[in-house]
Amino acid sequence: MSPTSQFSGNSSPINFRSSPLPPSPTPPTLSPQAHLNGHRTSPAFSIKSESPSFKDLDLDENIDPSIPDASNWTYDEVYNYFAQYFPEEAKVFKEQEIDGPSLLLMKRIDVLTSLKLKLGPALKIYRHVVKLQVRRDDPKLYWL
């Protein structure tokens, strides 16, 4: 192929120069004993986070019968629950149409940022969300 090409058609010829693309770099490969953060690793070695998660906790303990089951709540029932404790902030649950199943899926970041609440009330609301999710009142769960 020549460095200059011409196209014919209804318009005048167009000239352009084509240049070859440079070869793409080859991605690096890791050996089974590659260094990771200064430690040697092997295929059987896995890195585990030091922060706790719901998986690390014994959630098979008995549920607290005083904590209601929100799994089938409508968004009005969610609103009514939070209105008992947070009359001003509870309206966001109605505005966002958060029903029981949605409430049980919420994460900390959802409560602290997505609901657009002040931090203090948001943290207290998150405590209630976790209580409803696990149906236990355990302070170590509130910071997951």
UniProtKB/TrEMBL annotation:
Residues 1-42 are annotated as: Disordered. SUPFAM superfamilies: SAM/Pointed domain. Residues 20-30 have a biased composition (Pro residues). One of its GO terms (molecular function) is histone binding. Residues 1-17 have a biased composition (Polar residues). GO terms for biological process: negative regulation of DNA-templated transcription. Residues 70-135 form the SAM domain. It comes from the Eukaryota. GO terms for cellular component: nucleus. PANTHER family: ATHERIN-RELATED (PTHR12247:SF139), POLYCOMB GROUP PROTEIN (PTHR12247). This is SAM domain (Sterile alpha motif). It comes from Popillia japonica (Japanese beetle).
